[in-house]
Write a structure and sequence with these properties.
Strand order of the largest sheet: 3-2-1-6-7
Number of strands: 7
Structural class: alpha/beta
Radius of gyration: 19 Å
Strand content: 15-25%
Number of domains: 1
Shape: globular
CATH superfamily: eRF1 domain 2
Largest sheet: 5 strands, mixed
Number of helices: 5
Helix content: 25-40%
CATH topology: Nucleotidyltransferase, domain 5
């Protein structure tokens, strides 16, 4: 996070494929005070629990050959859908003028999914990304992790 400053009133979105925490920094860049604004949860059972069908088969256009299709990873598919939900929430807030600076903290895959879904109005406000999973720790520990990461 070198070079990223989490200024007063900046938003910090801490998320992964199943949970997103939206914070506003009520402190300043030197002394973070993250206030939780909203939590989004997305139920995402394992692929096995979401579908038990065997992969399909396809016929070759020439001859009588058949090939198996790859099995769909429904768990991963749901993570992509949730990234779209997060991006939509960020867009709505940006469009309403609720924040002017945004820091995204998420695993690399989630950051990549978010980049693909982000509206330009959100990406223009993005001042930093941190590739970390911090969704399952208390806000004070998130503050410490972000503070120690910036030094």
């Amino acid at each position: 996070m070198s070079g990223i400053s989490i200024e007063h009133d900046a938003w910090v979105m801490v998320g992964d494929g199943e949970k997103a925490l939206f914070f506003r920094n009520e402190g300043d860049a030197a002394d973070l005070n993250l206030e939780l604004i909203e939590v989004l949860n997305h139920a995402n059972p394992s692929t096995h629990d979401q579908g038990a069908d065997r992969p399909g088969r396809t016929h070759s256009s020439l001859g009588a050959r058949r090939s198996a299709l790859d099995e769909t990873n429904w768990h991963q598919f749901e993570k992509h859908l949730f990234a779209k939900e997060i991006a939509d929430a960020l867009y709505t807030a940006a469009h309403q003028g609720l924040y002017s600076k945004l820091i995204v903290v998420a695993p690399p895959q989630t950051i990549g999914d978010l980049r693909k879904q982000m509206h330009i109005e959100v990406s223009d406000k993005l001042v930093g990304e941190i590739a970390k999973t911090l969704t399952n720790i208390p806000a004070r520990d998130i503050e410490r992790a972000l503070t120690s990461h910036s030094n």
